[in-house]
Amino acid sequence: MTSSPSVTAWSTVRLRALGLVASLILYSLAAPLGAEVQATKSWRIGILALGSAASAAPFMDAFRMALRELGWVEGRTFVLDMALAEGRADRLPALVAQLLDHKVDVIITGGGNAPVVAAKAATKTVPIVMTGSIDAVESELVRSLAHPGGNITGVSVPTDVGYKVIELLHELNPSLSRIVVFVRNTYPTARRLTTKAAVLARFRIILDHVDVSEPADLPRAFAAARALHAGAMIVGPDALFLREGDRVIEFANSARLPSVYFYPEMVEAGGLMCYSIGRAEVWRTAARYVDQIAKGTKAADLPVQQPSKLELVINMKTARSIGVTLPASLLLRADKVIQ
């Protein structure tokens, strides 16, 4: 018995419909879990950082790219809410309050411990992802690296980065005997960065810490550094020094003091050396944390990571201008050399 044309056409329509349903089922099974989570809402991701839009741009590009690779779509599954302090730590409490008023789902902090401290003081429920805090356990930001507890996780830099800086300066000048360290007296972690007795004894180096609380303290700090007749200088990881970078760099170079900073921007502005985390990779890591939190994992259950590598940036123009000869071993280890 031969089927009528109408029956045959109907069968074809049914087969196509079944094929479409099967394709949709297979697509849903193949889609990443993150896409399912994100489809239920558009996440508002708050960015609380000490820097400016210009300094943050490269790292935000890395963050966006990492989210895209994980299946997120800006404007559809997430939006960024930027709160930038422009180097002024005193603005952080108001900025984090602004983010909370905007009902952000997660806060990413950038620029050391100060943004984390401000966010922690403001909320115990919104997840906070750190990008490069310093010694999060000793600073009492988290309970432990493996089990942070609370609502904070992310990336934390160990204090031994400070000891590596001393080693770099000793490699630059093996006869170095005294280093002046600019720190903020309200930031005890910065002091711990450079106080490992074994390192100091090994190199027979004396550290002189000069406290700087406000920009008005800088002339006094410069005078103290000159009076100490130090052979090198370390500038602590604090937003005050980033904001007043031009003044600090001008002093260091005019005094012909080989100096190490913790912000690459300060070396690009004329500082000699920077030793710090690779921030682009850290922000990609932050994207992975956001993805896991969106899938339902609590920040308390996500171990805090430590960067596997730190980046060395050297400004050769500055080296020449202050009469410093950089050993080949140091240049070979540099991740970036500014000519």
User: Helices and strands, in N-to-C order?
Assistant: HHEHEHEHEEHEHHEHEHHEHEHEHHE
Work out the helix count: 15
The proportion of residues forming helix, as a percent range, comes to 40-55%
Indicate the structural class.
alpha/beta
Please tell me the overall pLDDT: 84
CATH fold label of the largest domain: Rossmann fold
The side-by-side strand order for the widest beta sheet comes to 7-6-8-9-10-11-12
What is the total number of structural domains? 2
Please mark out the parts with pLDDT under 50 across 5 or more consecutive residues, or reply none: 1-15, 17-39, 186-191
* CA(first)-CA(last) distance: 87 Å
Can you identify the CATH class of the largest domain? Alpha Beta
Biggest pleated-sheet summary: 7 strands, mixed
**Number of strand elements:** 12
Please indicate the percent range of residues in DSSP E strands (runs of 2 or more): 15-25%
What shape does the CA trace take?
elongated
